[in-house]
Amino acid sequence: MRSATPREHEDVAALLARAFADEPFWRWTTGGSQERRLAFAHLTVALAAGHGTVLVAPAMTCTALVLEPGVLPQPPHRALPQLPGLARATGARHLPQVLRGLLRVEHLHPPG
């Protein structure tokens, strides 16, 4: 594994979108839409790139997104700029429900 370059982030997002196509949480979050799943993958890659590391296998066959300790839960000043992207990933009507779900998941992360 090696660090992905910023030019590879698009490919990493596409890889994640394919890998999580049938994963229940991603299906619920994105309503099963391929376009929304890709938007959600872009958000996760951007979070890891900004607050951790995006790793890829040499042939782009797998990836790992590693967050620095303490990144989750996100304080409001870091989460607010992500809302437009999250709305694209979830659909505006589904956004409030997804936000509640994401907050529940974030608060389950162990401290540190």
List the helices and strands and how they pair.
Elements lengths: L1 E2 L5 H11 L4 H7 L3 H18 E5 L6 E5 L8 H4 L3 H8 L4 H14 L4
Antiparallel strand pairs: 1-2, 2-3
Helix pairs in contact: 1-3, 2-3, 3-5
Question: Could you list some keywords that capture this structure?
Answer:
about 110 residues; single chain; three-stranded antiparallel sheet; mainly alpha
Number of helices, where a helix is a run of at least 4 consecutive DSSP H or I residues: 6
Q: Give a count of the beta strands, DSSP E runs of length 2 or more.
A: 3
Widest beta sheet: strand line-up? 1-2-3
Order of SSEs? EHHHEEHHH
How would you classify the helix and strand content by structural class? Answer: mainly alpha
**How far is it from the N-terminal to the C-terminal residue, by CA?**
24 Å
Q: Can you give the helix content as a percent range? A: 55-70%
Cα shape: globular
Radius of gyration: 14 Å
Q: DSSP strand (E) fraction?
A: 5-15%
Largest sheet: 3 strands, antiparallel
The parts where pLDDT drops under 50 for at least 5 residues are none
Q: Provide mean pLDDT, rounded.
A: 90
Explain what this protein looks like in three dimensions.
This protein is mainly alpha-helical. Helices cover 55% and strands 11% of the residues. Strands 1-2-3 form a 3-stranded antiparallel sheet, with helices on one face. The longest helix has 18 residues, at 34-51. It is globular, with a radius of gyration of 14 Å.
Task: Give a quick precis of the structure.
This protein has 112 residues and is mainly α. It has helices at 9-19, 24-30, 34-51, 76-79, 83-90, 95-108, and strands at 2-3, 52-56, 63-67.
